[in-house]
UniProtKB/TrEMBL annotation:
Keyword annotations from UniProtKB, A to Z: Membrane, Transmembrane, Transmembrane helix
PANTHER family for this protein: DIVERGENT POLYSACCHARIDE DEACETYLASE SUPERFAMILY (PTHR30105:SF2), UNCHARACTERIZED YIBQ-RELATED (PTHR30105)
GO BP term, pick one: carbohydrate metabolic process
Region Disordered: start-end pairs: 63-110
Species lineage: unclassified sequences, metagenomes, ecological metagenomes
Pfam families: Polysacc_deac_2 (PF04748)
InterPro entries: Divergent_DAC, Glyco_hydro/deAcase_b/a-brl
Residue intervals passing through the bilayer: 20-40
Keyword check for Membrane: yes
Keyword match Flavoprotein: no
Protein name: Possible divergent polysaccharide deacetylase
Stored CDD domains: CE4_DAC2 (cd10936)
Compositional bias ranges of the Low complexity kind: 93-105
Length: 407
């Protein structure tokens, strides 16, 4: 081997080692640059499928900013969160429409086989309480006068002398794990609120009702800062005509059936305009559904328009998880207890954060021992309506008596 090397000398052996090293590095660099020019950087190549799920910390910061929704804080649009997976529930199938099939999904909705609890509510839709709409079945008041608000509400019997607390957990449907946790781990008296854009929304509503939970859907309403802060498609706008907002409302309401009421998602700008709010409240009342406002901005326009349109509604007293920590949520729940003692009832609203669901599960387990009643939010809306009606009647009688005395 040594003789062969002597007979065929390697010309590189005579080169200066520094020159050889430089030449090698230069050659490799040229090859790499050429590859990048042709194919792009390896670490920047677009994958076939990309899932962007923000960290819990980033999600918490964004949600807290959106929850503020008072027009005075800088707000950023909610980042796109790709759902974990398509909800696949045992026994529930959603028919796939064909090019010649113009019938909506909810019209074909078959009675699913669900794990039925002792608290289960009647399967939706209930006959006579819906009609065809742009996205499915629209709620309607029956010919006999029955309203979806009462038909789909969870029954509740108040115990005299006990303060009542109510909880609504929102943002459900887009994330499978948290939605299942809310349905399965929280007491049936907790009201669940779903995002209207949820895939297979009817399946989720059916599962929630089978577990005993009454259901609401969330209406995207225009906030200050729109469209930079965008609640989503079919947002109800302060600048839209009455006909346009009615069209949007009917699309949102026809996404599913089986809910007793709706609640706002954002909406600081819309709720500041009585003219814009009127057709929305009129449409809700005409279709027999209740309304819950999250209470972040308390505006007289809500009271004025609701009274004028005859809408059953109320305001949540606390958002319990503006700060998503155990201590902060527990503090808000203690304040909710105090409000219930002071006013007879209190409503707390929270988002479907894992920490929120855990704290609500633990807290609700202690309520009975503390002397409180846990009630669905529909019951508190009714209680407050009856109380307001009684107050109005008493005031009217007092005014009449006063006039008689003066005469």
């Amino acid at each position: 081997m040594a003789q062969f090397a002597f007979a065929m000398p390697n010309p590189l052996a005579k080169m200066n080692p520094h020159v050889l090293a430089g030449t090698t590095i230069f050659t490799i660099t040229v090859i790499v640059l050429a590859a990048i020019a042709l194919f792009g950087r390896v670490d920047s190549a677009m994958p076939v499928a990309k899932i962007e799920i923000p960290s819990l910390a980033d999600m918490a910061k964004t949600q807290a900013s959106l929850r503020a929704d008072d027009g005075h804080q800088p707000q950023k649009p909610l980042p796109v969160i790709h759902r974990q997976s398509e909800p696949s529930l045992p026994g529930i199938t959603v028919p796939k429409a064909t090019p010649h099939d113009t019938t909506t999904t909810t019209e074909h909705h078959a009675t699913p086989t669900l794990p039925v609890s002792a608290d289960a509510l009647p399967q939706a839709p209930i006959a006579g309480l819906s009609e065809p709409g742009p996205g499915g079945r629209l709620p309607m008041i029956s010919e006999a006068g029955q309203r979806p608000a009462s038909a789909y509400a969870r029954p509740f019997a108040a115990k005299p002398g006990k303060p009542v607390v109510s909880l609504v957990v929102g943002g459900l449907g887009m994330m499978k794990n948290t939605t299942m946790a809310a349905i399965e781990e929280l007491p049936a008296e907790v009201t669940l609120s779903f995002v209207p854009y949820t895939p297979d929304l009817q399946s989720w509503v059916d599962r929630a009702r089978a577990a005993g939970h009454e259901v609401m859907i969330e209406l995207p309403m225009e906030p200050f800062g729109y469209p930079d802060t965008d609640p989503g498609p079919y947002t109800l706008l302060s600048t839209a005509s009455s006909a346009e907002n009615t069209r949007r409302l009917e699309w949102l309401l026809s996404r599913t059936t089986g809910y007793f009421g709706v609640t706002n998602y954002m909406g600081s700008k819309l709720t500041a305009s009585e003219n814009a709010l009127a057709p929305v409240f009129r449409g809700l009342n005409r279709r027999g559904v209740d309304f819950l406002y999250d209470g972040e901005t308390r505006r007289s326009s809500l009271t004025n328009v609701a009274k004028a349109e005859g809408l059953s509604w109320t305001i949540a007293d606390r958002i319990v998880d503006i700060k998503q920590t155990t201590a902060a949520i527990d503090d808000q729940l203690l304040r909710l207890e105090a409000l219930a003692i002071q006013n007879g009832s209190a409503i707390g609203k929270g988002f479907s954060w894992p920490v929120t669901i855990k704290q609500l599960r633990d807290w609700t387990g202690s309520l009975e021992a503390k002397g409180y009643q846990l009630a669905p939010v529909s019951a508190v809306i009714l209680m407050r309506e009856e109380k307001a009606g009684a107050s109005t009647t008493t005031a009217a009688k007092t005014e009449t008596a006063s006039k008689k005395e003066h005469h």
